[in-house]
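User: Here's a protein and a ligand (3-hydroxypyruvic acid). What would the complex look like?
Assistant: Let me lay out the input and then the predicted complex.
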Amino acid sequence: MLIENTTKRKLQHGEAVYGCFFRQAEPTLAEFVALQGWDFLVFDGEHGSLQARDIEGLARACELNGVTPVARVTANEPSNILRYLDAGAHGIHVPWVNSAVEVESVITAAKYGPRGQRGLAGSRQGGWGSRESLADFTARANRETMVIIHIETARAAAAVEEYTTVDDVDVLFIGPTDLSHSLGHPGNVSHPDVQRVMEQVAEVVVASDKTLGIFAGSPTFAADWYERGARYFTAGFEGLVKQGMQTYLTAVRG
Ligand code: 3PY
Ligand code: MG
């Protein structure tokens, strides 16, 4: 249930927040991951097989441990956004958003009136109307729900200035991998063309009232982008587990 979004609160105070992408439909494993000290977990409906229904148990595993459950939706589509939020995500990552008009449509889908047109019903996110009235919940949800928009195509990068003018966007999030692909250097995030576009995006976002977010799989990448003004960071579960296991095996096998 969405009572308070502690990650959003930290961002509002200018603090850096750290989260982990996770795509297993296993609440017990999510609970273990949540206990490692993350501010938030991002349950990944885009790259993986998670369904909106899986968010119910995964969100509960987070909520029990004071961690914010966020979901990456499959696509920018109102019924898709609605189902992930109603199931219990406190925020959404929306991939492949390619114009300011599309950003506005995310907000319309994610916020209740008067700002948006999110479908209203008793849902797990609102405690099925058992904790407070639906009217009170709409105000709470509009205040607490976090919206993270991916900048991961050349088109999105070129339009980012306009994205910063859309109210109620919390985080403009660079997706380095898709961006590298879109710029003609698939998987080569350190290519100078990709770095230059990421820097241009960063400058525009940092000068605005939005938070700059980025996927940062390593601490050095995250530290570098902290210096450039990013405050919302994600890593990935598999990447971190892989590093830990390989470090262990390399050490024990000498
Ligand atoms: C990307 O790098 O494309 C991402 O979406 C990271 O989450
Ligand atoms: Mg991506």
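Summary: The chain has a mean pLDDT of 97.
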